[in-house]
Amino acid sequence: MLKGLALTPPVIGRIAIGKVVMKDGKRLPEKDDEFTITTQVQRQDGWVLHPLDQQLRAKLAEAAKADGNKEPAKKEAKLRAIPVRFLFDDPDLNLRANYSVFDRATGRPLCVGNGHTCKRSTSSGIQGLPCPAPEGCELGAKSGCKPYGRLNVRIGDEDELGSFIFRTTGFNSIRTLSARLKYFQALSGGHLSTLALELRLRGKSTTRSHRTPIYYVDLTVRAGSSLAQTLEAGQALWRQRAEAGFDQEALDQTARDGFAAGAFEESQEDGSAVVDEFYQDASPTAAPSGTRQAKQAPPPSLGERMDRLLTRSEMPDAQPGG
Questions:
Q1: Cβ–Cβ under 8 Å, residues 34 and 80
Q2: Cys-Cys link to 37, which of 53, 73, 101, 168 (CB 3.0-4.6 A)?
Q3: pLDDT tens digits, one per residue of 52-111
């Protein structure tokens, strides 16, 4: 095996709640209010849709028709829930979240930390250093360090060891998914991988979003099923797997060793796509020394905020949170 190569779960597709669009000659990330399931093939007009995307949307249309809904199917056709299972029983293997810095030009990971310690690429190699979180880190302040999470899930039963990856820099998604995974693991007696669950898109608004909806990903039992039914079915599947010789504990340990084999999970190739989608709004890696001072400027007064809001309200294309 190649030294320093992280062995990550095989990925056969992506789950996204946004896309990258061309605007004023620039590639910019654009948020969406529904899921999109894609392959790993990207063309000039974006990522190629995975067949599962169309299959799930077709089921939505059938369900709406069965309910006698004669309204235009535009709202119901939005894909806001995806049935999933997990590869591993350990929540931290299914969802990895940390503070991350990428080289904007190459996509190469530069630093990954957890708020306590970090691994950083330096001229003398990979070093272990303290991680004070982005606000207290000189590199983080200059380079736009922020939370970054990767969730691997199974969709369907065609490939039981293949996964779809959902990437996010959203704090709401990372916090909610982390909590839900640990709760379901506890409730199931540690048998998280056998539970039939559902990724669900939820909306909320805050003062920072200027009362406009922002969307994040949650994890629930599947529609039409109760928690008790989900746990009972999960226990039955666990017994069935054990009888067939399925060693979930060994699979988890193999995955744990695979992640530990490399300093960084993302390759330079994957990092380029991550930068393109999530880090366009951050400062360049080679930011001037004055960047940190600008970030530490005192916050605007209430009067200044109101003036800005009034100015934005008069602009037809004003973007919240800008």
A1: yes
A2: 53
A3: 999 999 998 888 777 766 555 445 579 999 999 999 999 999 999 999 999 888 888 999
